[in-house]
Amino acid sequence: MSRLYAAKKTGREPTTGCVTLLHGSGTGKAMTNRRDFLNTTLLASSAMALPRLSRGAELAGSLRGGVGARVVSTWDFGVPANQAAWALLGKGGKPLDAVEAGAMIPEADLHNHSVGRAGYPDRDGRVTLDASIMDGDGRCGAVAALENIAHPIQVARRVMEHTPHVLLVGDGALEFALQQGFTSERLLTPESEKAWHEWLKQSQYKPVPSHENHDNPASRSLPGGQRDHDTIGMLAVDARGHLAGACTTSGMAWKLHGRVGDSPIIGAGLYVDNDIGAATSTGVGEEVIRNAGSFLVVELMRQGRSPQHACEEAVRRIVKKRPDAAKELQVGFLALRRDGECGAYAIQKGFTYAVCDAQRQDRLMAAPSLYQTTYS
Hints:
With 376 residues, the chain is α+β, with helices and mostly antiparallel strands. It is built from 12 helices and 15 strands.
């Protein structure tokens, strides 16, 4: 069911690194709804959309709000994802539609081994995907341990809109997706299968921080960070302060079959509240789940903390509970307040996040961290 986004050069030069979305029908007529947009739009590989990155991202814990609509997301591959979201949000579209469209970019990227169809498998060689989506009014949907469906974020939205439930898992999630018209397909790519066979030679499993950037060839020049696992989290706010968020992942590579992390867990990997703001997480999901991380960040903002300070306090709470373990793992939080101010913080150096608004569509930020050096 996936399509490809493609960049189109028009008579007017687009902003550097920006993705222009093409209508597939050729009629020239405006698309009437979200379904038309997603089903008639070509999704280009996000690797093609990645901007040329400098040696480093801008180091900043936060960016001020008051700029109107804004979309933010985790990691450097969030840049092209943001741009796909901005193609809707920047024209006055709904934040919920924007985050769904944005999350589909890394899901379709064959160079991204932490999200979607090219994700590394579990230790049994099976690719299982997790995703969640949430609107600022409290509606939400999620899927976990979903196999053979390329875009779990779309299925998560169907769960939200077409069932009385929040989360469907495993075979039940797949059965629902097929009933909704999604196509079953093999997700294990030759490259991922080769990596799995290499892993089987020793079968050792030890997550290491921040591989999202290292696994992406376009971002290996970024400073800091060791290799990690999983996840793009995306948050969006429109000019009226309405929020939405999405989170999608293939989870930890070589995990036990059936393992589910924080990404599809509302309140852990994602939480959105129109009254306050939104938060998402990345890193070792078990640590985020133990602390209801994204819900915690939003509640700290409700108490008056800035987005960056809320993320920092949530990180420090994780470290306080498991100080020794925290030296060898990564967790990062990203938060967006309803006025557009955003902030981030991580345990280890190397966590980056992307910011897109009317002023600039390719900004990449390096989040501050508790530890300035890595331990593993």
